[in-house]
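Aim 2 progress update. The chain analyzed this quarter is reproduced below.
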Amino acid sequence: IKQVLGSGVHAVVKKARNKQTKELVAVKCVDKANMRRRQLAREIEILTTVSHPNVISLKDVFEDEKSVYLVLELVQGGELFDRIVNDGAFSEKDAAKMIRKITDALMHLHERKICHRDLKPENLLLTSKGSEADIKIADFGLSKVILGEKTMMKRSCGTWAYWAPEILRRQPYDYSVDLWSMGVILYIMLSGVHPFDPDGRSTDAQIVERILRADYKFDPEYWAHVSPQAKDVIRHLIHMDPMQRYTCEQLLQHPWVAGILSNALKLYVNSFVVEQATGCPTARCPVSH
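Predicted structure tokens:
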């Protein structure tokens, strides 16, 4: 076992090497004295049954007198959160590629009756520091396996800044809460700010009130360069009515997410690039074709 990669209230994640294969792995060390047994058992059950290139994989589980150890796939690019903090907003092309992969993994989970319930940039891990990094969903401690088509969940869990309004209202909810969280994540990826706390100075009460009303804006300071198609995706995710939110399948079919840029979008992006480079509106700038 090597250096510590991260730590939480109930566990520490360390980098380790398999003595036989020499493979580098991540080991989640859960203290038995403080662990939540049901939560840990659920996480192990889910990771054991799920196999997807964009979901962190579980390689082994073992225990001793003091701890339970989850041997996980090692990814070394850090959290999506840190990438945004360090490098700023993503380009639309890169954001769409990331969202496409996360959504495909999320659809895989939903098809297996699994609702993640804690999607946030801190739980999305990058495989490397480079621009071609892959992305993986991690931390299934708060996930839930839904038994039956009409089962609705009622327990409030996860990080509340990414919660859908129905969770804050303590109303029954379903898989659509994961899509709301995806909308908040995409908003942050494209702007570098939170939709319900854009200046970073709002109180918790103000943020909650905005979430309950789905009250957010596309401030030109952060959104002037972002295409209408990208904003359209967000509007279909951060939607008050769960029944009107995109499903994973609908999200993957959206042209922006699918990577099918229309001529209108290409013109929009190109015009913005020209305006930024020349300092004058595109319509009045001589452009050679």
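The chain is about 40% helix and 15% strand. The first helix runs from residue 37 to 49. These observations will guide the mutagenesis experiments scheduled for the next reporting period.
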